Sequence to fold (461 residues):
Amino acid sequence: MKIKADRDVCIGAGNCVLAAENVFDQDDDAIVVVLEESPEGKDADAARNAVGSCPSGALSLEE
Amino acid sequence: MASPSTETPALPLHMRRERFDPPAEMREIREQPGLARVTTPIGRPAWLVTRYEDAREVLGDAARFSSAGLPVIPVPGTTPEEQRSGNLLMLDPPEHTRLRRLLTGEFTVKRIRRLQPRIAEIVDSHLDAMEQAGPPADLVPDFALPVPSLVICELLGVPYSDRAEFHRRAAKQLDLTRPLEERGMVAAQSRAYMAELVDRAFAAPGDDMLGMLVREHGDTLTRTELIGVASLLLIAGHETTANMLAIGTLALLRHPEQAALVRDDPNAAAPAVEELMRFLSVVHTGVPRTATAATRVGDQDIEAGDVLVVSLPAADRDRALVEDPDQLDVGRAASHHVAFGHGVHHCLGAPLARMEMATAFPALLRRFPTLAPAIPFSDVDFRSASVVYGLRSLPVTW
Fold:
């Protein structure tokens, strides 16, 4: 799995951090920062959930 | 007492509820092909979007579905341009993006977590006061409304001592049964009040959000924009969470085994908040969208200039989102509901609202383990004809 985040599209809602704290963070302006590009196991499930919960469409993943 | 739907028969379908539920008619519409027609409270015909996937498509595409097109309520002494200025809900990208990015840093998950101890303190002090006064209490004025009000006042830099006035104005501004002239007058008063606070912040910026915006962005933000932004944050910061706390508590009390879970299991609060948000979806619709070009939604042809309203409660009760959508189940895995909206206008304050609710619901239920409504369910005063659904009052005892 590889996660892609488009920081220009991100609106800083923070849903991804709440869904997958080990995988995503926010910078000081709330814009997404990917901590783990290729999460595994539980973190991979959480990352899939995070991508589904992203309101802006900034997140995508390649399985 | 009559149910809200018979009390106010003139309300458009997308603003009607049957207690916790969207009207039964909404389900039939969701299951039929195409989109239904409704009339907005200002008398404009619109398409009604009820399916989850359609809702995400419309709300998720600001280029095809604009939030900027609709006329505003006339406000004395203010041009429509001034009224739109700073009102994020009525702006499209790129203007929306520029303004929103000035604010998002205040609502990061990290920043909100740092606020949690203060939120818990505010919750506890209101529970102390309820306990000292003894039962019965009215949960709306004693808990649900003051807690988020004090939180947003401190965050934004609004004197909490002014709450009686801004509560009254906010309730009137959101009440769609009031004449447009009256809502316009009240909006003018709200703007004048916020203009004073903004001018004070320009003169002597404090440590709050108004002060931060002046200090860090005072060169790019106009006074009018700041008035618009701050007015929106004040209303959105207390009306939404207040109504969720009141009607959410009632929903939990109607499902005692689920209330017990929220009370006893510290890990239950966060998913319970998501499920209560989905189940209740207190914001009826976002700002109506205007199609920027001829397009299709589902199998419905839409013409350029057509208006669409997205029913958030209808979308959140779609089987495409969860199994048994009409059941409240706080134990289910958190769903990707649209109660906070979707797309670029997704609630800016969502991390704050979630934290307030995840703190307040368990604290209330732990303080008063025998909490119960003090009136029959059939007498509960639901508030339908408002931009935000909820309760006017909730007498409780313990």
